[in-house]
Design goal:
The structure is a single chain. The chain is an alpha/beta fold. It has two domains: 140 residues, no CATH class; 68 residues, no CATH class. The protein contains eight helices and eight strands; from the N terminus they run βαβαββαββαβαααβα. Strands 1-8-3-4-2 form a five-stranded mixed beta sheet, sandwiched between helices. Strands 6-5-7 form a three-stranded antiparallel beta sheet. A hairpin with a 5-residue loop joins strand 5 and strand 6. Helix 1 packs across helix 3. The longest helix is centred in the C-terminal third of the chain and has 20 residues. It is elongated and about 65 Å long. The two termini are 21 Å apart. The relative contact order is 0.24.
Length: 234
């Protein structure tokens, strides 16, 4: 068995939006042996709630390689010189974030493989409450906005939403300010840093998995609490 060797790994921070872009560019891929997307809708909701509240949500384990094993739903990588990053730990989180922040399913899954789609998750921009869509509760209520729409398309306008509330004068401005605060807070979550361990291409797959499992995660950004500790998800 390999001994833990923290000097073997590259510890870094990677922003959520950069990781999602790397998935779209097929710079981050997942191996065929990874399990399917199994998170429940409640787990997906709690992930975005944790980001909204600046709680840590777990890190990533990546293996940089120029000779990846069989990949999930990727027949051919883009022609480029260098290596790709194989996601060994964190794919449940990144898959969830890809769906909620871009509105699309990542390339390594098909729609038929997503059994618990979280994309009808809504945020109440007034209260900060997250809930899945309930017509009787949310229809016609301007403060309830789909999480995906807060990130995609620039369709969520706090001032217009406040004006639709029926309030007037100073009350409208105060409401618009509150809606804008929560909208901005949600959108800023895509810039949060996730701790990442990157195993270099000199390691084999088995070695990468063992060393990543035995190594401590890097420190969390100073603005985030440690209350959730280390969370593994594969």
């Amino acid at each position: 068995m390999y001994e833990p060797a923290t000097t073997f790994l590259n510890f870094s921070m990677t922003k959520i939006n950069e990781s999602l872009a790397n998935i779209r560019n097929r710079d981050i891929v997942i191996p065929e042996f990874q399990r399917e997307y199994v998170w429940s809708r409640e787990q997906a909701k709690q992930l975005i709630v944790s980001l909204f509240k600046d709680y840590p949500v777990g890190g990533l384990l990546l293996w940089r390689t120029d000779a990846p094993p069989e990949l999930k739903n990727v027949d051919q990588l883009p022609e480029k010189i260098g290596t790709v990053q194989l996601l060994l730990d964190g794919q449940q989180r990144l898959t969830t974030l890809h769906m909620l922040l871009t509105g699309t399913i990542p390339i390594y899954y098909g729609a038929h493989e997503i059994f618990s789609d979280p994309r009808d998750l809504y945020l109440n921009l007034h209260s900060g409450d997250f809930q899945y869509y309930q017509p009787s509760r949310m229809q016609g209520v301007a403060s309830w906005q789909r999480v995906v729409d807060c990130f995609v398309g620039n369709t969520v306008d706090p001032i217009k939403l406040a004006m639709q509330s029926g309030q007037e004068g100073q009350e409208v401005m105060e409401l618009a300010s509150r809606l804008n605060t929560n909208s901005t807070k949600l959108k800023e979550s895509e810039k949060i840093d996730l701790p990442a361990q990157v195993v270099p291409h000199t390691a084999g797959l088995g070695e990468a998995i063992v060393r990543g499992s035995n190594s401590p995660m890097p420190s969390w950004p100073s603005h985030m609490s440690r209350r959730n500790g280390r969370s593994r998800d594969v």
